[in-house]
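Q: Predict the bound structure with 1,3-dihydroxyacetonephosphate.
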Amino acid sequence: MRLKREKEAIILAHNYQRPEIQDVADFVGDSLELSLRAAQVDAKVIVFCGVNFMAETAAILNPEKKVLIPDPNALCPMASMLPADLIKLYKRKYPGVKIVLYINTLAEAKAYCDAVCTSANAAEVVNNIDSEVVLFGPDVNLAKYAQMKSNKKIIPIPRGGFCPVHKLFKKDDIIRLKELYPDAKAMAHPECDPEVWEVSDFVSSTSKMHRESLTSKARKFIVATEIGLLHRMKKDRKDAIFIPAYEEAICVNMRLHTLEKVYLCLRDEKYEIKLPEKVVLRAREPIEFMLQMR
Ligand code: 13P
Ligand code: SF4
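A: Predicted complex:
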């Protein structure tokens, strides 16, 4: 892409992006990989094809670069379930208790936490934080998943945070598909309800599922996450069959970005992520806590 070279830009895309966007991106990955890549990027402009909290994280890690999002309406409903004011309330309710926030939160909320985590490292972050009791939000299912792998006491905040897309997966669908494809490996995202991961063979972030599909001996996979990931899986493992656990599991926010919007975003250098300096300074530390853990 000539325009990309002229602007000294790089395109980062989440695993749920439309196939044609994944195909033009310089890097495709999960939230953790995208944060790591954003921290190392050598470019003047970052075009971030993902939802706003992901682009915000890239902007926090690159205050001197221009971070653009092709469609500014790409918001994650789960991230909006834990506004900064609610965190301040929990801080008053549980004085001194450390707060770990899922990366799926707004920058303003991250500014009030002690560490950020992703679905790839939630338990690891909780185990590394200096506190025996941890407030964790906004995803209750990820809180339960981290609790399963930690001896610390995890208190979910708010009580009912969830992803509307991963709520669509049902235990009975996985059981039925496993009966239909007895040699298939069932993979689920931790944002699914616990009863879904309890009947699955592998539970982790989108990129870890992708990696598992490359290294596993299995040749059939039932996939319980947003269907965008299947494009990457099919592209990289041509001899395998990928079965969506529910084909209507589409994150409409992720799909707002189109190739045309990516082009216009680069051409007109819009829409730039702009955050108050105070928020950038305060949110950077908890994100770096996670990145330095590796
Ligand atoms: P991953 O970090 O696993 O890619 O998940 C991001 C997300 O929003 C899942 O819904
Ligand atoms: Fe948010 Fe769910 Fe979409 Fe992920 S799939 S961006 S958690 S709404």
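A: The domain at 166-244 is CATH 3.40.50.10800 (Rossmann fold).
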